[in-house]
Amino acid sequence: MKIEYNNLYTHFVFVTHHRIAMIKPQFRERIEKYITGIVNNKGCKMYAIYANPEHVHFLISRSPAISEETIATVIANSSENFINDNNLCSGKFSWQQSASAFSVSKGDIENVCRYILNQPEHHRNKTFEEEYNEFIRYYQKTINPSIR
After folding, report:
1. What is the mean pLDDT of the chain?
2. Sheet holding 100-104, edge to edge
3. What is the pTM of this model?
4. Residue 99's CB: how many other CB atoms inside 10 A?
5. Regarding beta strands 100-104 and 9-15, do their DSSP bridges make them parallel or antiparallel, or are they unpaired?
6. What is the spatial distance between Cα 103 and Cα 129, in angstroms, rounded to a whole number?
7. Residue (of 18, 71, 25, 24) closest to 44 by Cα position
8. Residue 99 main-chain phi, psi, to 5 deg
9. Which residues contact 51 (CB under 8 A, 6 or more apart)?
10. Residue 80's closest CA among 35, 33, 128, 125?
């Protein structure tokens, strides 16, 4: 069945292999623009992106014709090749074999965008590992079974 209207917002977090800080600040914007181009070419829309040295956050809206896993795989493979082909880091660049994808409600888009774009300030007070563990605890909360 064709989906005529949708609100499918996903906050992705990609992490470099072994969480090594490989994304150099001078290439951050170039990598962000490349990933944004991939998103646009797949019929999705980028709302916010920020490439930290060892991880990238981005929020997209996507078509129901493409799954989170498919778009994540395309972005990971293409951006790895782009970074390596253009020597944007020392050594061979790769992402971890898995990423995180968190659904976002339409009412939370502004807050998530602010959070993503404020990464430098955020990481002055919190390591990536602390941040990631908080995400997992928050998003993996179980709903009280008596509420249905």
Report:
1. 90
2. 45-51, 55-61, 9-15, 100-104
3. 0.87
4. 18
5. antiparallel
6. 20
7. 71
8. -130, 175
9. 23, 28, 31, 32, 35
10. 35
Q: What angle do CA 77, 32, 56 make, to 5 degrees?
A: 70
Which 8-state DSSP code applies to residue 43?
Answer: T
What's the pLDDT tens digit per position in 20-52? 999 999 999 999 999 999 999 999 999 999 999
Q: Token pair for residue 107?
A: 């009412």
DSSP state string for 48-101: EEEE-SSEEEEEEE--TTS-HHHHHHHHHHHHHHHHHHTT-SSS---B-S--EE
Residue with tokens 């079974």: 145
Q: Report yes or no: 30 and 36 within 8 Å, Cβ to Cβ.
A: no
Token pair listed for 87: 């020597």
CB 51 within 8 A of CB 23: yes
99: closest CA among 11, 12, 10? 12
Q: How far apart are alpha carbons 41 and 147 in whole angstroms?
A: 41
